[in-house]
Prior knowledge:
Blueprint: E1 3-9, H1 16-34, E2 40-47, E3 57-58, H2 61-66, H3 69-79, E4 85-88, E5 99-104, H4 108-111, H5 122-128, E6 131-134, H6 137-147, E7 153-154, H7 171-176, E8 183-187, H8 196-209, E9 214-218, H9 223-229, E10 235-239, H10 246-251, E11 255-258, H11 267-274, E12 279-282, H12 287-291, E13 296-298, H13 302-312, H14 317-330, H15 335-349
Parallel strand pairs: 1-2, 1-4, 2-3, 4-5, 5-6, 6-7, 8-9, 8-11, 9-10, 11-12, 12-13
Amino acid sequence: MPQLSITTIVTDTPMGAQAYQHQVTSRAAQALSATGAQWTVREHTVRSLRSSLPGDRRLPLGRLARASASTRAAVGRLLYRGDDVSHRMTLELPPSPHADVVTLHDVVAWRFPDESAPVAAAAEELRGSAAVICVSAFTASEAQELLGIADPHVVPNGVDPRYFDAPPLAPALLQGLGLDGPYVLHAGGAARRKNLHALAEAWPLIHRERPDLRLALAGPVHAERTALFEGQPGVHLLGRLPDELMPGLVAGAVAVAVPSLYEGFGLPVLEAMAANVPVVAANTSSLPEVACGHAILTEPDAVAIAAGIIEATSGDSALATMVAAGRAHAAEYTWERSAAAHARIWNAVR
């Protein structure tokens, strides 16, 4: 019976990539069984040498990211012993000597200097892998152009079922967050590619037209986000909230803003659509691909973002049509469909 291992790195600040890892890994055995093939599936969770987080493997992750291709290959030979197919879900992990499958969410490490530096041997390893899985056609095109990957597979993410038709958070919870009125939500990180500086410039324009509107910013505390928004009227810096609150927080928003300059996929777009909330997204990178005509797309500058959010909160009857179409579009993105596509790739490279 062939053996597949799926290996991840544990983190204390899980984001979209970690949601992907959990959703695909938890469905892997069932997806493989549905193909008619019998596999043994094992999961490995790697942590750094000093980490107190739960895991079943320890590696010197910082040194490994800077190591030569030969050193990383030697570590991989030990880590993936007994595999027929090895799927590593992050580039920091070493390559497998067996059928090496790798997920590539984006190429931001190569594109943006404020992101973590790229793994030194990553491009070479990706070109030598059995399969590279990209989460969007945009990321696949970036992988081909920038890294020389010949035939990447495109397998979109799914949407957590909890977002579909989610009820808004209870008023008492919203008031506890300072949200005692209608709010626009931005959720996620604060790296430069998230384009928060343009949203910060847009907010006074929006507030002038919509003085009762709040701006809710959810995500790990970040000095740049705080500097951009602290003291602006109607802005609430929520910090990182428990995962179980996020569907209700999204569902309670009058609009969700995704003004990013660059996204490998842009899951917040689909989560908002699933929750029946209008989306205002930048017309950049993968966002038009994911939105597929069911969001208000704008140029990524302050004036255009402000106009998009003012339109999304106007109460225009056309918004209801867009929201209904967005809900139907989001329903096409399921983790079961994503896992099934992964299973076909694992079978093909065995």
